[in-house]
Amino acid sequence: MRKILFASSEVHPLIKTGGLADVSASLPIALQQHGQDVRIILPAYRQCLEAFDKIETVATIKLDGFYLPVEILQATLPDSDVILWLLHSPEHFDREGGPYGLPKSGDWEDNAARFALFSRAIAVLALDQAGLDWQPDILHCNDWQTGLAPALIADEPNRPATIFTIHNLAYQGLYPQSAFESLDLPESLWHSDGIEFYDLLSFMKGGLIYADHITTVSPTYAQEICSYEFGYGLEGLLSQRAKEGRLTGILNGIDNNEWDPESDQNIRKTYSVTTIRNKLMNKAAIQHHFSLPENYDALVLGIISRLVSQKGIDLTLDAVSALMESGANIQLVCLGSGEASYEQDLRMLRARFPDKVGVHIGYDESLAHKIEAGADVFLMPSRFEPCGLNQLYSLRYGTLPVVRNTGGLADSVTDATDENRKNEIATGFKFESSTAKALEERLLQAIDLYKHPRIWRKMMITAMEQDYSWEKSATAYLELYDSL
Ligand code: ADP
Ligand code: GLC
Questions:
Q1: Using omega within 30 degrees of 0 as the cis cutoff, is the peptide bond preceding 13 cis?
Q2: Which residues line the pocket of ligand 2, CB cutoff 6 A?
Q3: CA 446, CA 347: separation in Å to the nearest integer?
Q4: What is the mean pLDDT of the chain?
């Protein structure tokens, strides 16, 4: 049994902006099921404090660079018995809004301080200096918000082995040099082989340079980030790590209990491979929900997404409107929030095609399940996608993904080529170039295949039979922990 400290800035169901939260709950649970002693550390955001009736203070610590002491609160992750430590610093985390800012108002101005504080606390726990009498063998950090922790403990003699997982290289935690100075970070970290990145402070580099091993969330993304196109200037460093055998891609798993069409309480009618025709009732339900005609012949395309450039929302808008203009029998149901211009464009598409498009701007867990169950096809034309979870949920719900051939999408969907269909391994549709035209062409093939119910049904069943549970991936992490 290993002791693993798992550090993340989001954990479902307490606080979530994207897939990081899902992974930061389901991976620790899977590791615990493999007999490991896992503890999670997360900032005590207001939402987290409100989620628990009773919460115990187990330590009070003073962190370098910060004036007031902070507390470590202890609870258990909901629906599990994984121990959860919450870093309580009201000044930094007990406020209205999301984990990184107020909706539509950009990031908090003190994010560098908030996540430096978080990283400092992670470092103290990793060295067992909080008086909790628990020293991890492994410190597993996730994304830039935790990036300074491996750097802070790199030279400590009795430190745990450190792993840093990149969930999205596009967000790096870059701040001016003045932030570095005001945070009282060790001078020895400020150089180009340290956390300095072209005169800026890079939280991400703390993880990339100082962790013993780097992982990212799919094998294809692990290769892509070593290239100019996806590396954001870090491709040289990442290629070097890859050469040293210190960069690995491990595909995320999903929580098969939470995302299970056979027992999902959010959907109108549960179904499985043997009762697959019940999926149609969910299609009618979602059409009804969005006030669209309850037409079984229309191919219903679903989207659940952060509305940002990464996700190729503009490609969807152009491809779908071209198809609708040409009279294709399709409907689009979309749940998402993010950049105001995409929200506006989606509303305009709805205004143009009121009997074909349904849009819900906002965040709604239950509606996300209903769309997964009700749509025929799930759209993820991402420009890049480190892993992506929604295509995995879609496969499980027999909702065939249409994806761009990148990152985790490339690693999890098998394209409906003639050969793959003949071999009965096709599970979705892939296209290469990041253009609306390429997406439109692929959608035309999906529309065509949908007219052949037997072929379509076979693909649905193959998709539903795929196993993307954590079993395989949790074992890969355990092997990696062992190798360190
Ligand atoms: P990313 O982390 O880049 O946003 P993922 O596909 O890994 O992409 O994970 C997205 C997660 O967030 C999924 O669990 C998805 O269902 C959820 N999600 C995204 N937008 C919404 C929304 N508007 N309402 C409900 N769930 C959402
Ligand atoms: C990031 C990525 C997404 C991935 C998720 C969980 O948010 O954008 O592709 O699935 O992290 O690892």
A1: yes
A2: 18-20, 23, 167-168, 217, 252, 385-389, 408
A3: 25
A4: 97
What's the pLDDT at 218? 98
What's the pLDDT score for residue 357?
Answer: 98
- Kindly give, in sequence order, each residue whose CB lies less than 8 Å from that of residue 195, ignoring residues fewer than 6 positions away: 147, 148, 151, 180, 185, 189, 201, 202, 203, 205, 206, 209
Domains of the chain, each with CATH number or no CATH: 3-253+471-483 (3.40.50.2000), 276-464 (3.40.50.2000)
For 483, counting Cβ atoms within 10 Å of its Cβ (0-12 exposed, 13-18 middle, 19+ buried), the class is: exposed
Which pair of tokens denotes residue 298? 């229309």
Ligand 1 center–CA 306 separation, angstroms: 6
Contacts of 21 (CB under 8 A, 6+ apart): 8, 10, 11, 12, 14, 15
What's the gap in Å between 129 CA and the centre of ligand 1? 36
CA distance 9 to 78: 16
Q: Whose CA is nearest to atom 12 of ligand 2?
A: 167
Residue 294 has pLDDT above 90, yes or no: yes
- The alpha carbon of 337 and the centre of ligand 2 are apart by a number of angstroms equal to 16
Q: Is the pLDDT of residue 185 over 90?
A: yes
| Beta-carbon count within 10 A of 256 CB | 15
* d(CA 422, ligand 1 centre) in Å: 33
Contact by Cβ (8 Å): 147, 207: yes
Q: How far is the CA of 219 from the centre of ligand 2 (A)?
A: 13
Candidates 86, 93, 162; CA nearest to 126 is: 162
Protein residue with least CA distance to atom 9, ligand 1 = 19
Provide the b/e sequence for 457-472 (b: ≥16 CB within 10 Å).
eebbebbbeeebbbee
Contact call for residues 137 and 2 (beta carbons, < 8 A): yes
- Cα(444) to centroid(ligand 2), Å: 28
In whole angstroms, what is the distance from residue 167 CA to residue 433 CA?
23
> Which atom of ligand 1 is nearest the CA belonging to 20?
2
| Ligand 1 contacts CB of residue 363 (under 6 A) | yes
Rounded-to-integer distance, Cα 412 and Cα 387, Å = 9
| Ligand closest to CA 143 | 2
Q: Measured between alpha carbons, how far is residue 373 from residues 343, 414, 426 in Å?
A: 23, 20, 19
User: What is the pLDDT at residue 345?
Assistant: 98
> For residue 16, which ligand has an atom nearest its CA?
1
Cα 384 to Cα 312: distance, rounded to the nearest angstrom: 9
Q: Which atom of ligand 2 is nearest to the CA of 167?
A: 11
**One-letter-per-residue 3-state SS of 352-392:** HCCCCEEEEECCCHHHHHHHHHHCCEEEECCCCCCCCCHHH
Quote the pTM value.
0.97
